[in-house]
Structures are given as structure tokens and as C-alpha cells.
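Chapter summary example.
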Amino acid sequence: MDGTVVTVFVTHLEVADSGSRVAQAEALTDIASRTPTPRIIMGDFNATPTHALETALMLREHNDAYALDRVLVVSRWLAAQGPFERDYLKGGHTIGVFDPSARIDYIFASLDIGVVDEIGAAGVPRSPASDHLPYVVAPKTAPQAGRQDRLSRRRTQPMRLPRLSVRASPARFARCRLRQMSAGRWLPLCRARTWRHGTRTWAGIMKTTST
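The structure predicted for these 211 residues follows.
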């Protein structure tokens, strides 16, 4: 791509069990993080944007190609407050061919890959090929593209997250909530409870700041 070697990972995560999805996503990010080239992770994650744990693992080192700021929104409340609303509450649905109602398909790109800055570069065309709508992105490689090519006046900074002590089975996830930080900054927090071992782990997902 643009004369640069890019590694592409394609995945289809577990349908029924959220604990398995998180374990699979963590294994995938571990493998991808060892890749020296720019990378793209795409596929059916079987998780909507508001199910943070299944997809937040990707955001430690990757951007989401579709969102306005190319970062996943983890709270409907947060989405409704800003420019994310157009992307996650009103569009981008990939499941339900005849009446699209949710988004569970994603394309994540490493920080040195940007999305082409033109209308239609990232979107979901209405051309059903299966039980999912196709998802199309026109990427480009450029130094620091993923960090600097922003489409709005807000930016998001991926955080280095601690490893989650969540096992593939059995695991359930409790409520997610936002904890207000100083200076108007918000840090979404999710509590993961592994019932089998009786442990609880708090995992910070991301923080949003204004430019």
C-alpha cells in the first residue's frame, strides 16, 4: 500500500460468550503488536460499539477507521455529547441487511496508517453480499498519519491498558460507567468480574481531551 508492506489480520470473534471474545481479542492484539510493519485488523467482532471490553483492546495501539475521530466510542452517553453521535448513534450499521440496526464489523488500523481524507473513503455501502453489509475503507500510509490526521476539533489519546485478568470461560461483565476526571476530562471505566475465580479487575479504556 503506497509502496509500504502492510500486514492484514482478519478475524471472526465468538458469537455467544463475551468472555471468549475478550480473550480472543487480547490474543489477537498480542500477535499483532509483534508485527514490525503497519497493520490492519478487520472482521466481525460480534460486539456493538457500546460493548467496550470486546473492542477496547484494539485501541491500545490502533485507531478505528470509521469513527469521526477514528476511535471507538464506549458510551452512548458520551457519544450523544459530541461529534461521535453522527457515527455511532445514526450510522455505520453493518448487521441486518434489509433493516440495518447495529454495527459489529470494524476495521482497526495502526497509528501509522490514516484514512484517505475524502468523502466516501470510509463507509458502509448498501450492497448486501451476505447477512452483513460490506464495509469499505480507503487507507493510506504516512508518518504519524494515525496521530495527526483528525477530522474534528477533538482528539482521543489511546492509553496503555493493564492486562485484563479475564479468562475465556466462564466470564461475565458488570456495568460500565464514566468517572469524571479533573479539568473536564472523562475516563471510561469498565469492571470485569471473573466469577470462577471471584476476582475483579478495573480496566481503563481511553481518555478524551479537547484541543
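To summarize the output: The radius of gyration is 17 Å.
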